Amino acid sequence: MNARILPYVLILPVTLFLCLFFIYPFVLVSQQAFQAADGGWSMENFQEVVEYWKFPISMKNTLLLAAIVVPVQLALALLMATMVSKMKKGRDMVLYIWTIPLGISDLAAGIIWLAIFEQSGFLNSMLHGIGVVDKPVNFLTYQNPWIVFLAIALAEIWRATAIMLVILVAGIGLIPKEYYEAADVFGASKWKQFTRITFPLLRPSLQTALVLRVILAFEIFAVVAALGGTLFPVLMGQTYSYQFDLLNSGAAAAMALIILGISIGFTLIILRILRVPKGASI
């Protein structure tokens, strides 16, 4: 086969996949979002979802959850990845154990944490056993919004930190050991080695991990549905409600595009902050 044609032949399956499962659905969703009731083009759907009283609450909850969960996950993933990279024995076993939540679906993770926080759950049993409470406490109610938020945040941190961990472990593995040996020779502390060697050279991995995690943070739905239900509205939950409860596909499509726009905006910010100079290499 001609060497000029070969690269295009190799990327053809991926191109067809993207066109069939991303570009074509995206065009359909965009068409629904901008289509008016009379068949023309309009911003009616966007106006409807933005003016709905739950939209600012959903936006605030989604942004707050992302602002709390993602930095905590990043710190935990960096700490865990650094620990794993320094281990001599049992490294693979520890990594396997820490990445177990990756094999659990969002809804299953939410149900697991529901079994902890519900009225007949493990937390109530423990508190009753040590004499802190006389009778079971219903934590996940409208009277305890911050406990609902805490339960969702803990479930997300437990479930999705492993995604960032795997990416960062791979990135640390690419950093040459000679850099750390030279730093030891010059008497650099472990903290200086981390801030001057590990962190700067992890920028490409940090970019990937943060972009992926931020996008997923704005798509959170199943964990919230299991733990908070309607007590903690989020953007993706409102999208589901428009599509399946209210049967308003135009408004659902508009919500989907709003979430996409927010995700793209934060992605560009992350890429700008953690930009890697052209030609830079480890």
From TrEMBL:
Entry keyword Transport: yes
UniProt superkingdom: Bacteria
Subcellular location: Cell membrane
SUPFAM superfamilies: MetI-like
Domain ABC transmembrane type-1: 59-270
Alphabetically ordered keywords of this record: Membrane, Transmembrane, Transmembrane helix, Transport
Transmembrane feature ranges: 5-27, 62-81, 93-116, 146-170, 210-232, 252-274
GO process terms (BP): transmembrane transport
UniProt-listed PANTHER family: GLUCOSE IMPORT SYSTEM PERMEASE PROTEIN GLCT, TREHALOSE TRANSPORT SYSTEM PERMEASE PROTEIN SUGA
Family the entry assigns: Belongs to the binding-protein-dependent transport system permease family.
Protein name: Sugar ABC transporter permease
